[in-house]
């Protein structure tokens, strides 16, 4: 679409809306992380603060969960990637009929809801544990082990899909050629197939790591009394949220951005090297720029910038501003109190001249017992707390009295 | 260098009910350039894979030297196979590819790269060792594949249609090159092809295969001039096949009653035919002449003519029998015969009479 067809304005507006829709929540989340208000919000803006990062790192449950998540994710990568590779290799060796059957079997865990997998994992390992007479202290009832087991069941299928896609492009003749040239089957696997699968191993490890780290549905069951990062987060949100979660979002967004930029630098460099345009390119032909856009340089620069921001943030002291805000609030409260007192005072003054005329009213008492007297709303005239219900008139004969359950 | 003989001792290879190779029995001498020639699906690749150890014979034995190869895997045989698509390792450099057979045998890095350089020298590609495989041209890859196969000095080099992916010019060049390499290193080359040109130009001997059966094993000239079966006659080179019944045979000359009259040809390989036998008479297009002063004459209708550079191919119809006549291009335009009826002739000793059998492409 271009200006000539009159689409320019619409297209620009649409793009704007689209990006606002995509990034709006993220931007707002990032801003709330730096507002000192104890509820995540932008307005009213109180103070610029980095304290929520401190609150985040001070949250033992969340940090413990993060450690658990990392341990489980590393374990899942270590187990799911070899299993996925084995499954993909098995599928590539089979005849078409058997392959279709086995493929369905291996892919089923992805299709089963995570909740079901979670519950069945506990039930299965629990039953197994009981059948061998293991106690509750054994690994059959250990949340970390169960989570590992539960996640591996379906995450290996993801890894398998990655490997299958790569294996489809592998020419089996290469293995035969290696054998013919004197390689043992083991050597052919290590020197020919494994290097070919290298990129797939990388992406499978990355994918399985993320899938494990962000999993909630299965983990929430299998982790039992422990907690991972996701379950800790979920319970924190349930109890009420504060901007430390926004601070977490800032960190995650930062890591993602650095990763994406470094990856892009790497991809562009590879492309330039592969097409052989590097020496003629303006960027890659220049020795200074070439070093500057090398993925490692880019990573070091970005990590340095992030580190600097973190350091500066940690030095920032918002207490003066916060004290100011607190003072402001106190003053405002004071002001409100004063206003109220003044209002009451005025009402009293207005009431005083009319008192004589009200006296007859008192002599002949109002049917409401003077409840609508302005003076009765004064703070010192608060009504007495509701009387306790009489004990004897319960239809249940006082059976629900708390005292009834006491041993006599 | 003396290479070992290869003996195929009544080898049959079956997949289920399908017989890929049926009772192949021959001996390939050490140092020979031996070709298996046949249409695709004739079992020649299966036979090659059997020699290199990827298939086991269902019946019979494969012997290299005097050793029975049964149960010996491809990595333990003194053979090296060059695949149709070459199967160079894409992630390795040219030198690493060539050094791979040494690497898996535990030769040190320095020694094997030195050997790779020597081999690159031999295939006239010095200095490309550091390149990736995809940076080479088709012909260069071809030579790298040969160098890789020769790295550990196998006794036998097996080549599975390695030239089929190259363009015509390069293919012709590589034919000469392959033959030169073979004579230089003195190895046994077993070459698989469906291209008779390749088989005839390079080989010491050719085995022609059809439907899993080896029909004839002979030097190229014999294959071309004295085919033993109607399949060999029709597959190797262009030919005209005329079906008929034997009328009589006097010494080596057979008279055949065909759709286009009585024709005479020589009986192949000193065969004797009974009168009434179903036979084919084969006559090469270049042996057909546009003249009547011959032992056999045929009249035919001109259909079309094709110019092929060095020759002209004339397609004719003689009472329902398709005939093809080839004339050498003399540089002058010949008489225009378009749409006319012409008389053809051929000498009886140029025509071959063979028993009825499969024809190539039929």
From TrEMBL, chain A:
Q: Which InterPro entries match?
A: Bact_Polyamine_Transport, MetI-like, MetI-like_sf
Q: Where in the cell is it found?
A: Cell membrane
For this UniProt record, give its keywords in alphabetical order, as a comma-separated list: Cell membrane, Membrane, Transmembrane, Transmembrane helix, Transport
Lineage, broadest ranks: Bacteria, Pseudomonadati, Pseudomonadota, Alphaproteobacteria, Hyphomicrobiales
- The yes or no answer to whether the keyword Transport is present is yes
* Topology term for the membrane: Multi-pass membrane protein
Cite a single Pfam family from the UniProt record: BPD_transp_1
Q: Which GO terms describe its biological process?
A: transmembrane transport
Q: Bias category Low complexity: which stretches? A: 351-395
Q: What protein am I looking at?
A: ABC transporter permease
Which source organism?
Roseibium aggregatum
Q: Which family does it belong to?
A: Belongs to the binding-protein-dependent transport system permease family. CysTW subfamily.
Q: Which chain regions cross the lipid bilayer?
A: 7-34, 66-91, 103-127, 139-163, 192-213, 245-267, 288-312
Coarsely, its chief localization is: membrane
**Disordered: annotated segments:** 345-408
Where in this chain does the record put each ABC transmembrane type-1 domain?
66-263
Which GO terms of the cellular component aspect does the record hold?
plasma membrane
Automatic annotation (TrEMBL), chain B:
Q: Which PROSITE patterns match?
A: ABC_TRANSPORTER_1, ABC_TRANSPORTER_2
Q: Has the keyword Nucleotide-binding been applied to this entry?
A: yes
Q: Any keyword Transport?
A: yes
- Give the organism, scientific name: Roseibium aggregatum
Q: Which family, according to UniProt?
A: Belongs to the ABC transporter superfamily.
Q: Where is the ABC transporter domain?
A: 6-236
* SMART domains, alphabetized: AAA
Any one GO BP annotation for this protein = quaternary ammonium group transport
State the protein's name: ABC transporter ATP-binding protein
Can you name a GO cellular component term?
Answer: ATP-binding cassette (ABC) transporter complex
């Amino acid at each position: 679409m271009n200006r000539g067809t009159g689409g320019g304005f619409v297209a620009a507006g649409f793009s704007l809306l689209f990006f606002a829709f995509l990034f709006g929540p993220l931007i707002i989340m990032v801003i709330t992380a730096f507002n000192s208000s104890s509820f995540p919000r932008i307005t009213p803006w109180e103070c610029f603060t980095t304290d929520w990062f401190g609150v985040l790192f001070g949250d033992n449950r969340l940090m413990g969960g993060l450690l658990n998540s990392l341990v489980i994710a590393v374990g899942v990568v270590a187990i799911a990637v070899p299993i996925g590779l084995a499954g993909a290799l098995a599928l590539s060796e089979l005849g078409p009929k058997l392959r279709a059957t086995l493929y369905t079997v291996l892919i089923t865990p992805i299709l089963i809801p995570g909740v079901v997998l979670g519950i069945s994992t506990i039930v299965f390992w629990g039953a197994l544990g009981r059948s061998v007479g293991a106690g509750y202290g054994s690994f059959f009832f250990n949340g970390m082990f169960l989570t590992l087991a539960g996640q591996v069941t379906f995450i290996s299928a993801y890894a398998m899909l990655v490997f299958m896609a790569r294996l489809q492009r592998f020419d089996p003749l290469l293995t035969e050629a290696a054998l013919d040239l004197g390689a043992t089957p083991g050597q052919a696997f290590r020197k020919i197939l494994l290097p070919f699968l290298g990129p797939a191993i990388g992406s499978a490890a990355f994918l399985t790591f993320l899938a494990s780290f962000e999993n909630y549905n299965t983990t929430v069951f299998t982790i039992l009394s422990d907690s991972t990062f996701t379950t800790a987060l979920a319970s924190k949100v349930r109890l009420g949220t504060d901007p430390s979660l926004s601070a977490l979002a800032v960190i995650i967004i930062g890591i993602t951005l650095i990763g994406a930029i470094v990856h892009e630098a790497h991809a562009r460099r590879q492309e330039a090297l592969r097409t052989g345009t590097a020496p003629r390119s303006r960027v890659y032909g220049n020795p200074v720029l070439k070093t500057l856009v090398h993925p490692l340089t880019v990573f070091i620069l970005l990590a340095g910038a992030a580190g600097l921001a973190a350091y500066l943030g940690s030095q920032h002291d918002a207490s003066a501003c916060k004290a100011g805000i607190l003072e402001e609030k106190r003053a405002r409260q004071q002001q409100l109190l004063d206003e109220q007192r003044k209002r009451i005072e005025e009402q009293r003054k207005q009431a005083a001249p009319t008192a004589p005329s009200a006296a007859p009213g008192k002599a002949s008492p109002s049917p409401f017992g003077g409840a609508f007297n302005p003076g009765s709303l004064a703070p010192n005239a608060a009504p007495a707390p509701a009387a306790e219900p009489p004990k004897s008139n319960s239809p249940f004969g006082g059976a629900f009295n708390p005292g009834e359950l006491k041993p006599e | 260098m003396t290479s070992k003989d290869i003996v195929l001792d009544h080898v049959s290879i079956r997949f289920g009910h399908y017989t890929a190779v049926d009772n192949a029995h021959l001996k390939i001498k050490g140092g020979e350039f031996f070709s298996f020639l046949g249409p695709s699906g004739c079992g020649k690749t299966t036979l090659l894979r059997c020699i290199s150890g990827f298939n086991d014979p269902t019946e019979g034995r494969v012997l290299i030297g005097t050793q029975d190869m049964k149960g010996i895997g491809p990595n333990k045989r003194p053979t090296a196979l060059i695949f149709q698509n070459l199967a160079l390792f894409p992630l390795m450099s040219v030198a690493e590819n060539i050094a791979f057979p040494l690497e898996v045998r535990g030769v040190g890095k320095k020694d094997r790269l030195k050997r790779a350089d020597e081999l690159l020298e031999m295939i006239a590609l010095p200095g490309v060792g550091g390149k990736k495989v995809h940076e080479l041209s088709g012909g260069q890859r071809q030579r790298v594949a040969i160098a890789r196969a020769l790295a550990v000095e196998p006794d036998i080099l097996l080549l599975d249609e390695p030239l089929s992916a190259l363009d015509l010019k390069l293919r012709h060049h590589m034919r000469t090159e392959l033959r030169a390499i073979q004579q230089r290193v003195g190895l046994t080359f077993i070459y698989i092809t469906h291209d008779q040109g390749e088989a005839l130009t390079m080989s010491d001997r050719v085995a022609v295969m059809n439907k899993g059966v080896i029909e004839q094993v002979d030097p190229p000239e014999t294959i071309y001039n004295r085919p033993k079966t109607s399949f060999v006659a029709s597959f190797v080179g262009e030919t005209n096949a005329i079906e008929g019944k034997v009328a009589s045979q006097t010494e080596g000359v057979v008279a055949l009653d065909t759709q286009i009259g009585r024709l005479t040809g020589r009986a192949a390989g000193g065969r004797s035919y009974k009168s009434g036998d179903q036979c084919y008479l084969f006559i090469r297009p270049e042996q057909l002449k546009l003249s009547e002063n011959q032992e056999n004459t045929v009249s035919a209708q001109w259909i079309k003519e094709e110019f092929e550079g060095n020759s002209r191919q004339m397609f004719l119809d003689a009472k329902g029998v398709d005939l093809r006549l080839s004339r050498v291009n003399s540089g002058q335009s010949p008489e225009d015969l378009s749409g006319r009826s012409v008389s053809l002739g051929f000498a009886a000793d140029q025509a071959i009479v063979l028993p009825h059998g499969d024809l190539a492409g039929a």
